[in-house]
Specification:
about 110 residues; mainly alpha; Serine Threonine Protein Phosphatase 5, Tetratricopeptide repeat; globular; Tetratricopeptide repeat protein; TPR-like_helical_dom_sf
Length: about 110
Amino acid sequence: MSRREKIEAMLADDPQDAFLRYSLAMELDKEGDHDASLARFAELTHDSTPYVPAYFMAAQQLARLDRVIEARAYLRDGIETARQQGNAHAAGEMSEFLQSLGSAGE
């Protein structure tokens, strides 16, 4: 059984587990199924309590795919969400990554 299959089996028992859903999105990215991975990350960011790491991982994946404008949007939203949740560390990491991507006019 692959790692993805194991995660999917655990999700069958607990479909709302944010960490398992995040793990599945990461596995889909590793497999090169970027559309499915990004869709999973997007779901996590729209939960009633958004899962902050999903913003950062989605942004990193989008940057690797040369979709920098979308990556910046995820980072801006993620920074705001992290601050609202009191997660200064995550907000700081995403701010640094956003700066590394340059300004929107570049």
